[in-house]
């Protein structure tokens, strides 16, 4: 579906409908359709020639060695690269058929619909309750905040652990609890998509298991894209996997990310079509 033209410079309607992609290698409607994407930081090209679709209510994992552009790719989905003055995006990123980088699209609205959970838990120095209520308040929510807080914490599998501590500082939570709090904070503004940038890299195995279980539960309601260095995690939680590698410019000591292969996760880990993918997932490279 095309964007709706308006007179307002920052008021392009993002249609929440979806289009079928007859060439998609997954079952499900595409939320994102990326074509010939390249991202530059000044003259440096960080990723190039990326084309892929992300399916609704699927977990899509982005894997690959350090410096291959996984996080840069992830940040393209909610225009976080806009916050970097020298960043420039070329190619096409469509969200439910609408051009995500149309100059009339409000990036703040984009980031409300497409939330992000970062590598290191980053709760606000506020109470647990206020962490969850902050986003809806800023968005002008007029309903019952108590209900939003409880529902969000329930969905993040944290309610039973904090229900009697809501007025206590979020900084007193464990690392795993803080990360689930950040997921609850993201959920509270009712996004369509949740982006996760190595959400378990700072967590112990028990906390990691809880986050992975949570991701499986959340995909019934949300589309999830996750960057992970942990291939076992990608194999456990994702439906689709994209493998990126880096082309190295020895003269400039720069790496440009390239999408090597994108397919169903089971296929990627058992019978990939590209030798580079096989070498990476079997530990012979990277």
Could you describe the 3D structure shown?
It contains 10 helices and 10 strands. It is an alpha/beta fold and 286 residues long. A hairpin with a 4-residue loop joins strand 9 (240-249) and strand 10. Helix 3 packs across helix 4 (145-155) and helix 3 packs parallel to helix 6 (175-188). The model is unreliable at 1-24 (pLDDT under 50).
Short description:
By secondary structure, the protein is of the alpha/beta class. It has helices at residues 70-76, 107-113, 128-138, 145-155, 159-162, 175-188, 205-218, 231-237, 265-270, 275-281; strands spanning 30-41, 44-55, 59-63, 87-95, 98-99, 114-117, 193-197, 223-227, 240-249, 254-264. It has a single domain (30-281), classed as Rossmann fold (3-Layer(aba) Sandwich), CATH 3.40.50.300.
Sequence of secondary-structure elements = EEEHEEHEHHHHEHEHEEHH
CATH fold type: Rossmann fold
Q: Which overall shape is indicated by the principal axes computed on the Cα atoms?
A: globular
Proportion of β residues?
A: 25-35%
Q: How many individual β-strands? A: 10
End-to-end Cα distance, whole Å, is 40 Å
Report helical residue fraction.
25-40%
The CATH superfamily appears as P-loop containing nucleotide triphosphate hydrolases
Q: Mind summarizing the main beta sheet?
A: 10 strands, mixed
């Amino acid at each position: 579906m095309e964007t709706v033209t308006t007179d307002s410079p920052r008021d392009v309607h993002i249609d929440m409908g979806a289009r079928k992609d007859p060439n998609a290698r997954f079952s499900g409607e595409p939320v994102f359709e990326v074509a010939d994407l390249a991202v530059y930081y000044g003259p440096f090209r960080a990723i190039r020639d990326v084309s892929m679709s992300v399916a609704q209510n699927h977990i899509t994992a982005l894997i690959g060695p350090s410096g291959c552009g996984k996080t840069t790719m992830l940040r393209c989905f909610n225009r976080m690269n806009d916050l970097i003055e020298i960043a420039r995006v070329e190619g096409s990123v469509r969200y439910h058929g609408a051009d995500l980088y149309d100059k009339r699209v409000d990036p703040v609205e984009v980031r409300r619909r497409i939330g992000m959970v970062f590598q290191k838990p980053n709760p606000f120095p506020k109470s647990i309750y206020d962490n969850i209520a902050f986003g809806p308040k800023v968005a002008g929510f007029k309903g019952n905040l108590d209900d939003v807080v409880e529902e969000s914490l329930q969905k993040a599998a944290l309610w039973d652990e904090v229900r009697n501590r809501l007025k206590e500082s979020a900084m007193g939570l464990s690392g795993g609890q803080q990360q689930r709090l950040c997921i609850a904070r993201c959920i509270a503004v009712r996004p369509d998509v949740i982006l996760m940038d190595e959400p378990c890299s700072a967590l112990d195995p028990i906390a990691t298991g809880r986050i992975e279980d949570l991701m499986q539960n959340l995909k019934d309601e949300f589309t999830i894209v996750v960057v992970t260095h942990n291939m076992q995690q990608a194999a456990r939680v994702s439906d689709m996997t994209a493998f990126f590698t880096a082309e190295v410019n020895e003269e400039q000591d720069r790496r440009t990310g390239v999408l090597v292969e994108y397919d169903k996760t089971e296929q990627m880990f058992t019978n990939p079509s590209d030798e580079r993918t096989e070498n990476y997932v079997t530990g012979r490279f990277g």
